[in-house]
Amino acid sequence: MQEQGIDESEEWDEADATAVHAIAWLNDQAVGTGRLLVDGKIGRMAVHKNYRGKGVGAAILNTLIELARQQGHDRVTLSAQAAAIGFYEHWGFVPVGPAHEEVGIAHQWMCLELN
């Protein structure tokens, strides 16, 4: 939130209560996070800037995808920041529909079929 200038009121929502949250820890410090909503949407993916490119995001994403499979979802979706589209494409996600804006940042809906 701080790095990208997102207001805290935009980050927390009612879905937090029913989502599964994944947190990557290094020693006693949380270095990454993500969540899986009950409808199979992955969101709130974030990795501390000092730990990007070290597999933290991949570990969180793969954990959430596997959890979605275990929950019986046929697909997962996410709204990727434009700068992260390549990261998600690497894991098999494909763009769906037009680009859009969230909290002043360009995003793209993406989908991964789990079958």
Automatic annotation (TrEMBL):
Official protein name in the record: Acetyltransferase
UniProt cross-references to InterPro entries, sorted A to Z: Acyl_CoA_acyltransferase, GNAT_dom, GNPNAT1-like
Signal sequence segment: none
Ranges where the N-acetyltransferase domain occurs: 1-115
Organism: Limnobacter litoralis
Pfam family, one: Acetyltransf_10
Entries under Gene3D superfamilies matching the protein: 3.40.630.30
